[in-house]
Each structure stands twice: as C-alpha cells, then as structure tokens.
Write a structure and sequence with these properties.
The protein has 13 helices and no strands. The longest helix has 20 residues. The model has no long low-confidence stretch (mean pLDDT 81).
C-alpha cells in the first residue's frame, strides 16, 4: 500500500484527504493492522485510477500478502522467548532481583506482565496494551507504591469501561 501511494506521489495526509479518511486509517492499511472497507476500496481504486479487483487481486494484493507474511515472521523472530518459557523467565528474573538486589517488593509486579504477553497478536498494540485492565492495575500499583497516590490512583479504574467503549470497536 505504501509503495503504491508513493508511486502516485502522495503522502499519507494527501491520500487520506483524497479518499475522505483519516491519516491513521492510511497508516493502519500500510501497517496491515486493518483492511479498507468496501467503500474505501472503491475510493482507493478511484484515487489510483484502477479497479478494486486490480487492487485486491493484482500485484498490489500479492504485495499485501507478501508484506503481511514478512511482518509475521519478523514478529516471531523478535519474540526470543517462546510462549511456554515466558512465565519461567519472569520467575527467574523475580528470584534474581530478589536474591541479588533485594528487590522482592517491586519485582513481583513483573508477574502482571504475563497476561499481557499472552494477549493475541492482533490486540498487542500499544493502545490496546495500555488500555487493558491488567495494565491499568499495574499502573495503579506503581502509582500507589512509588508515588503514594493510592487515593487518586483508584480513579484509573473508571477508565476501564471508557477504554472498552471507545477502543474495542473491532
């Protein structure tokens, strides 16, 4: 998608304005986070002076699939600790921090990263991670333990339904 946009001499803002979407939509398409809706495909075809079929089934579509495959393999390679070993890794890190640095208290917070680690890949975006209930509990505990903001910190739990309402529209 990015290569096609650049071939046509458009930046993200120009393309977004041309097809009446947001710049974030264009970025999401280019990063394969989501695909255009049928109406957006039509607008894209019109903007690129081609047909929807050519975009979806032609070289451009195979480019999308190829890019998605490359990105999936890169994500797998980045995760050097496989899923089965992550809790073991966290436990060993906790023990090392406790025995060698005497950080028993703060290091137990590492265990809260385990559910975040096991989130499905499609939900593991910075926005989704920061708005997950587990992350909000972690933020609340850090605010309480390190900043002594227990009282105002509990207000963060009001954010859970708000985040669910505004960000979970998939």
């Amino acid at each position: 998608m990015r290569a096609l946009r650049k071939e046509n001499g458009l930046n993200k803002v120009e393309l977004a304005a041309k097809i009446n979407v947001t710049k974030e939509d264009v970025e999401a398409w280019e990063e394969n986070e989501k695909e255009p809706t049928p109406l957006q495909w039509v607008a894209l075809a019109k903007a690129y002076n081609t047909t929807v079929e050519a975009l979806q089934d032609g070289e451009e579509r195979s480019y999308f699939k190829y890019k998605a495959e490359i990105e999936n393999e890169a994500k797998k390679a980045k995760r050097f600790i496989n899923k089965a070993n992550y809790p073991i890794f966290i436990t060993l890190l906790y023990l090392c921090m406790g025995f060698f640095m005497h950080l028993w208290h703060p290091s137990w917070l590492l265990f809260l990263t385990i559910p975040i680690y096991y989130m499905p890949d499609k939900y593991r975006t910075p926005k989704r991670i920061l708005t997950s209930p587990v992350a909000l509990v972690l933020i609340y505990l850090i605010l309480g333990f390190y900043c002594h903001l227990w009282h105002p910190g509990w207000l963060i739990f009001f954010a859970i339904p708000l985040f669910s309402t505004f960000f979970d529209k998939d």
